[in-house]
Amino acid sequence: MSYLVFARKFRPQKFDEVIGQEHITDTLKNAIKTERVAQSFLFSGPRGVGKTSTARILAKALNCEKGVVPEPCGKCLSCKEITEGRSLDVLEIDGASNRQIDDIRNLRENVKFKPAQGRFKIYIIDEVHMLTTEAFNALLKTLEEPPEHVKFIFATTELHKVPLTILSRCQRFQFRKVPTGKISEKLREIVTAEKIQSEPKALFALAKAAEGSLRDAESLLDQAASYSKGKVSYKTVIEILGMSSDENYLSILDAVIEKNAKGAFEIFAPLVLEGRDMIQLVRGLIEMFRGLLILKVWDNPDSDLLDLSPETLLELEKRKKHFSKEDLLAVMNLLQNLLIQTKRSPMPQLHVETALMKLTSRENLLPLSELLEKLRVFEPAGGGGASRPQKTAEIYSPKMPAPANDSSVQKKKLNSEPSAPLQPPPSVTPVNTAKDPSQPGIELDEIERVWPVILDRVKAKKISCGTFLSEAEPVEVEQDIVALGLPSEFKFHKEALEQRDNKKIVEDIFREVLSRPVRVSFVITVAEKQAVTVAPAQAADEDMPEIIDSAVKLFEGKILRKP
Description:
Blueprint (H helix, E strand, L loop, with lengths): L5 H4 L12 H12 L6 E5 L6 H13 L13 H8 L5 E5 L6 H10 L10 E6 L6 H12 L5 E7 L7 H4 L3 E4 L5 H15 L2 E2 L1 H10 L4 H14 L3 E2 L1 H8 L4 H13 L2 H13 L4 H20 L12 H10 L5 H20 L3 H14 L6 H9 L13 H6 L16 E3 L29 H18 L1 H7 L3 E6 L2 E7 L3 H7 L2 H15 L4 E9 L8 H5 L5 H10 L8
Parallel strand pairs: 1-4, 1-5, 2-3, 3-4, 6-7, 10-11
Antiparallel strand pairs: 8-11, 9-10
């Protein structure tokens, strides 16, 4: 007696039995009810998700003896022949072995003949992307204007290889991967029908290993049932799949929490000796930490979002308190890089061991909110939200003694052209500059001491404004108006700083640092000329080259030795 595998024995025979593709089955049933059935269909999607099964069900619905109905009876002669694959009116063609132009020419000749028994002659071409370019071109005209009694149903796992000229002539349906939970439920129905003893965790592991393919899951269940002699346990599934158990991953997770590198290696070493796949091991770790991250931000996540058994989710729920979101994001980044390295490296074990050492020795990261709260403690009094820690403010506090002036720095004075008193431009609303009797007036020395702090804060708020301002320096203070001077070659910087937005930023930063209203004015400065002392020998030398004389005057220097 021949044995029928689970994938064929439990193949869906009605639209309602197709799992995870409701968006397609509902559309097809409604099209049949409203008599809006297209001439050509294209089913695309991953392997083992129901493309060919749906095509057969659609063929039965169109040729059922009860009429064109959304739910074929499955008992009439036409339905039975289609189910058994021996119907003369429903032809299943393998696109990989019938891909040449001669095969398509034969098909074009045969479509002219009417169906033998049913209403329609239906061609189901599986893996249609395997047809040659010439074969596709030969199919175009027939596909665009087929006889009324002909329907085409194409199936493919590689939609991008199908020419656009074919796609435009078909009604397309994109099949999705089947969620792990739904696959697990289907496997439970199969073991119940077959009277096979099983553990729920084992069925979930098989469904998870199938990666969205119901057919793969049924094949794995068939294999597990044969290996375990009719009793499918979680241990059996782990041995068949060659994967690590969730308990191993949770133990590694505990070692990371305890910062126990030795414990992590004690769990990892037996897995290496058993020949476990390193790539699969890294993926398991990524899945665990991904589960922690989702549980951290979502109290009751959707079960389809996490491919983890209920028992594992409960264990992760207990451990999520040991990690912050910042910790988990950093770990996920490390493991993603590890996965790439493991795939490329000839020594993947070394990379995994290095990553385990990093995970068990890393320091926990503080949440951003806690870090900002700690920084707020050090903010200077009267500072704004963007203030620096108080330690930095104290370094430049006006109460500290002024730093010694560098003798190499030349003092500058205001250009004689703007001789009028310093006044705010008309476009700026005047600020009440009346001095508070309890506060001393602002001195130029105070401005010079806090000037580096002001520059840093302006750059942090607007980098372009800070760049322009870095070329200026305080030159004079008069009644809470600070004059900032720029050399004549920076006239463009002066004009940019005088723009309303930039000037407001500078004045706001001054107010934050000095805790009082301050207005600023930008002026052009010139260097204070100094007399050049000429040595007697040099003065007597009337034959000094003119270029040297010009250089001495330009740089305000003196000649130490006669050339």
